[in-house]
Amino acid sequence: MRIGGSENAMEEGFIDVGPADLTEGELRGLEVGERLVLVVRHQGRITAMDDSCNHAGCLLSGGWLHQRKAAVVCPCHEYAFELGSGRNLTIPRLCDDQCAFEVRVERGRVMIRFPRE
Ligand code: FES
């Protein structure tokens, strides 16, 4: 799903990336400007992180949720990244944590704030 991107800059640097209509357990991959972003609803909470796995670039949105760990599992080598923090939960840790983003839901829309570069 392609999103307009930079024109949607809102107060405090949050960007509107689309409707907050994710179903429970849905992994949704978005293009936000130049970034690939994964948004997930798990136990009612929406979180976001880079969709491109920092291990070898596979898309986490093609993976699955690990319910007990509250993590997304990459489809390529099955590394697990914690929802909300992006922390790599897989041992041995052969890649970094995923970059996770701040999320707000306002008026039925998912708002994400990317870190300053
Ligand atoms: S590309 Fe994601 S675990 Fe290897």
What does this protein look like?
- This protein is an all-beta fold and 117 residues long.
- It has a single domain (7-113), classed as Rieske Iron-sulfur Protein, CATH 2.102.10.10.
- The protein has no helices and ten strands.
- The chain has strands spanning 2-3, 15-19, 27-32, 35-42, 45-50, 64-66, 71-73, 80-82, 100-106, 109-113.
- The strands form two sheets. A seven-stranded mixed β-sheet has the order 1-3-4-5-9-10-2, with no helix packed on it. The protein has a three-stranded antiparallel β-sheet with strand order 6-7-8, with no helix packed on it.
- A hairpin with a 4-residue loop joins strand 6 (64-66) and strand 7.
- It starts with a strand and ends with a strand.
- FE2/S2 (inorganic) cluster binds next to loops.
Question: Pairing-aware structural class of the strands and helices?
Answer: mainly beta
Tell me, briefly, the overall form. globular
Q: Main β-sheet, in a few words? A: 7 strands, mixed
Query: Would you identify the CATH architecture?
Result: 3-layer Sandwich
Looking at CATH, which topology would you report? Rieske Iron-sulfur Protein
**Gyration radius over CA:** 13 Å
- Residue stretches low in confidence (pLDDT < 50, at least 5 long) are 4-9
Q: What integer is the average pLDDT?
A: 92
CATH class type: Mainly Beta
N-to-C order of helices and strands: EEEEEEEEEE
- Helix count, per DSSP? 0
Total strands: 10
Helix content: under 10%
**How widely separated are the two ends?**
24 Å
In this entry the ligands are: FE2/S2 (inorganic) cluster
What count of domains describes the coordinates? Answer: 1
CATH superfamily: Rieske [2Fe-2S] iron-sulphur domain
How much of the sequence is in beta strands? 35-45%
Biggest sheet, spatial arrangement of strands: 1-3-4-5-9-10-2
